[in-house]
Design a protein that fits this description.
The complex is a heterodimer of chains A (about 130) and B (about 230).
Chain A lengths: L3 E5 L3 H13 L3 E5 L5 H8 L3 E5 L7 H10 L8 E5 L4 H7 L4 E4 L4 H24 L1
Parallel strand pairs in A: 1-2, 1-3, 3-4, 4-5
Chain B lengths: L1 H9 L8 H5 L4 H15 L3 E7 L4 E7 L7 H12 L5 E3 L19 E8 L5 E9 L8 H57 L6 H31 L1
Antiparallel strand pairs in B: 1-2, 1-5, 3-4, 4-5
The chains are: A alpha/beta (about 130), B alpha+beta (about 230).
InterPro entries (chain B): GAF-like_dom_sf, HisK_dim/P_dom, HisK_dim/P_sf
GO molecular function (chain B): phosphorelay sensor kinase activity
Catalytic activity (chain B): ATP + protein L-histidine = ADP + protein N-phospho-L-histidine
């Protein structure tokens, strides 16, 4: 079964390019250009990972991520922030995101970070089950 | 972005929407220093400075016997000063209608206060000086000096506010500028990579894709340098 990536990005060109790249890498990709309904989106899509732009309407990526982290059912979904923001490392730690991708990025950067965090989630689930 | 830049660059003088924005531009140490200086300069026993945020006063500094002077007295006096055009003078505090019901130390009778007023006329605070009698060193000339001092201080606060506002706007514009350049760079760079992945490209087109990729990398380095310079400058 294909792993699902939910992308939040208000720049439609970048959103489309990410979708092309990840679809070609055998992921199922869902996209949104606003994040105010993130909880409903996550319930509907049930993603394996979320790729979140930070400067996105209406509530902004940081706030949206915090909403997801507050939900017991979704708090363990890996969230990778991607942005052209200067302080991604600091923001990533502050909001407890799984990782970050600084724009501009390469195709390999995108594929690697998605694969990394989906694999980490899988390993952590396997460890939990074996315990 | 363009509209925001234009608006920011056109602003020669920034008018604060709220007096408390101005007040935040005064360093805490400055209140104490100035209050002490005024007490020494004019020979008053007790000197204070309060700030008005548009809704309530707050005491920022006091020079003298603070434990003997109630906040009721300081805020009542500040309110009187706020309503004054240039200054407010009381020769007998205990018989003044606004302060007669307040417990006032017997050593304090004479009061003079000057409001902090911005150029736009907004009151942002008051400075008050109290003593038992009119101090020997105090006269009409001293009062004029006090008014000028307060006016200079208010100008200084406004200047600091304008500087801070301008700096904040520049920071915002720079952040927007670097952010809005990196997004299209991402699009150009990814498109060049995707085209380059096609199997049937001629060597010439493949070279072009590589050139685009390298050029976007160089542009991104320039943006990084610009952002680093801006960060260091702040």
């Amino acid at each position: 079964m294909k792993k699902c990536v939910l992308i939040y990005e208000d720049d439609l060109d970048i959103m489309q390019l990410c979708k092309i790249i990840l679809t070609a890498s055998d992921y199922q990709v869902e996209t949104r250009n606003t994040c105010e309904n993130i909880i409903a989106d996550v319930k509907e899509v049930n993603p394996n990972i979320i790729l979140m732009d930070l400067w996105i309407p209406e509530i902004g990526g940081e706030q949206a991520i915090m909403l997801v982290k507050q939900e017991e059912a979704f708090k363990d979904i890996p969230i990778v922030i991607f942005s052209a923001n200067e302080e991604l490392d600091t923001i990533c730690k502050r909001i407890n995101a799984s990782g970050y991708l600084k724009k501009p990025f390469d195709i390999m950067d995108l594929k690697n970070i998605i694969q990394l965090h989906i694999s980490e989630k899988k390993h952590s689930e396997q460890s939990t089950q074996s315990v | 972005m363009n509209e925001m830049n234009q608006s920011a660059l056109n602003d020669k003088e920034i008018i604060p929407e709220n007096p408390s924005d101005l007040i935040q531009c005064i360093a805490e140490d400055d209140y104490d220093w100035l209050t002490r200086q005024l007490a020494a300069l004019f020979g008053f026993s007790d000197t204070f400075m309060t700030l008005w945020d548009g809704q309530q006063s707050s005491l920022k500094s006091f020079s003298g016997k603070r434990e003997q002077v109630s906040e009721d007295l300081l805020y009542s006096l500040s309110a009187l000063v706020h309503s004054a055009k240039d200054f407010y003078l009381i020769e007998n505090l205990s018989s003044h209608p606004q302060t007669e019901k307040i417990n006032i130390p017997s050593r304090l009778n004479f009061f003079v206060g000057v409001p902090f007023k911005t150029k736009a006329g907004a009151v942002i605070g008051a400075i008050g000086l109290m003593n038992d009698i009119v101090p020997a060193s105090y006269n009409g000339h001293q009062l004029e000096l006090l008014r000028i001092l307060v006016m200079l201080l208010t100008d200084n606060i406004e200047l600091r506010y304008n500087h801070k506002s301008q700096t904040d706007k520049e920071k915002l514009i720079n952040r927007k500028f670097t952010h809005d350049l990196r997004n299209p760079l991402t699009v150009i760079s990814l498109n060049a990579e995707i085209i380059n992945m096609e199997n049937n490209l001629s060597a010439g087109v493949r070279d072009m894709c590589n050139q685009v990729k390298q050029a976007t990398g160089s542009m991104n380095q320039l943006i990084d340098t610009f952002a680093a310079i801006q960060k260091n400058a702040q």
